[in-house]
Each structure stands twice: as C-alpha cells, then as structure tokens.
Amino acid sequence: MGMRNAATIVTFLLFSFFLGGLTHDAKPERFDKWSRRLARAGVTQEQVTQLHFYFHDIVSGEHPTAVRVAQAANSDRSPTGFGMVVMADDPLTEGPDPNSRLVGRAQGLYGSAGQEELGLIMAMNYRFTDGKYNGSSFSLNGLNRALDPVREMAIVGGTGVFRLARGVAMAKTYSLNATTGDAIVEYNVTLVH
Q1: Could you give the CA distance from residue 40 to residue 159 in angstroms, rounded to a whole number?
Q2: CA pseudo-torsion sign 55, 60, 66, 71
Q3: For 36-45, 76-85, 88-97, 111-120, which range has the lowest pLDDT when averaged over its residues?
Q4: What is the span of the domain harbouring residue 112?
Q5: Which is nearest to 156 in space by CA: 139, 137, 133?
Q6: Cβ neighbourhood burial of 55 (10 Å; 0-12, 13-18, 19+)
Q7: How far is CA 101 from CA 74, 96, 104, 156, 189, in A?
Q8: Prediction pTM value
Q9: Alpha-carbon gap, residue 12 to 1, rounded angstroms
Q10: Which of 92, 90, 70 is nearest to 81 (CA)?
Q11: Strand, coil or helix: 89
Q12: Which of 160, 185, 193 is nearest to 88 (CA)?
C-alpha cells in the first residue's frame, strides 16, 4: 500500500471518528450508570420556610454554653479579641426569655476575625428538636459584625426537612450584658429547600 493510500485511510478514519462523535451524546455512556438528572428522580418544587427564634450565647457563670478554646498570644490585648476562637452549644428558644420553649441548639464555633472592628466569623449548625422540624438542621457560615444593628449571614446547607437548604439569616441583638458578655440574639431565617 502506498503512502497516498495510507494517508487517505487515516484521514477517512479521523473524519469518521469526528463525525461519529458529533452524532452521539456528549456525555459518555458510563456516566449514565452512576448519575442522573434530579428532574428524573422525582424532585418536587422547592419550598421557602421562614423561622423566627432566639439564640442564647452564655459565656459566664457555672454552666456557659460558649467557651473560649483558643486564642492568639495578643488576643487579650486586642480591643476586638482578634484571634480568639469559641466553641458553642447555644440553646435556641421560641421567645427571648431563656425559660421559653426550647426549639433547638446552635452548635459550632465562632472566632474574632476583625482587628479594627468586632467581626465574628461563624461556622454553626442550627439543629431543631421540636415540632415538625425535629431532627432537621441548617448550616450558617459568615461574618457576624456583632455591633451592627442587623447582620446578614449565609445559609449554606441543611439536613432533614431542610436538605440542600440555602438562604439567609438576619440576626439582631435582643440583649447584651456588657459585664458578663452574655447575649440573646433574635434570628429571622429564610430557607429555600
């Protein structure tokens, strides 16, 4: 076979392969065995849920719900506590009174991330223990400028009823004890799930 015939055959094979690729689904067949489109899985329309509750961050007394677990060498000298990290297991209640009905707990950590102004970076899981949301949770991640009248933080996921949640939490300080540092924060949360 001459060089010319070999080049013609190679050109024909490459051209056929290219055209064949255009006529087949761009996704390799093997992907169809382990993946599927959600629309085919029977996913229902998304829901929007609004929640209103109070977060009790207690850093004083014999039974604090938030404790400092780490800090930088100069955190105590910083006006913002920069470099301090707190682990929390804070109660969530229906009303601002600490004795009102417990609806869940906020568990996670927050740390002082601002050198010039108070800014707490928060990574918290809000898990509900009451009513139809019992066992469901959402995850909040964002900067909480605690001295601002209202703070907006992102909801980045969820479980149970709130599976695949996204949304926003609006936090507003209800009361702050300047002596102890204990705080009650009102939360209005909108979840899309």
Answers
A1: 22
A2: positive
A3: 36-45
A4: 48-192
A5: 139
A6: buried
A7: 40, 10, 9, 26, 18
A8: 0.77
A9: 16
A10: 70
A11: strand
A12: 185
User: Cα(47)–Cα(117) distance, rounded to whole angstroms?
Assistant: 37
Q: Are residues 103 and 139 in the same domain?
A: yes
Domain count, the chain: 2
Q: Are residues 124 and 151 in the same domain?
A: yes
SS3 content of the chain, % helix, strand, coil (to 5): 20, 40, 35
pLDDT tier at 33, thresholds 50, 70, 90: low
Q: Which residue has the higher pLDDT, 153 or 2?
A: 153
pLDDT of residue 45: 82
* Domain shared by 23 and 100, yes or no: no
- Verify that 54 and 34 share a domain, yes or no: no
Handedness of CA 174, 177, 178, 182 (dihedral sign): negative
Regarding whether 103 and 147 lie in a shared domain, the answer is yes
What is the C-alpha to C-alpha distance for residues 106 and 123, in angstroms, rounded to an integer? 10
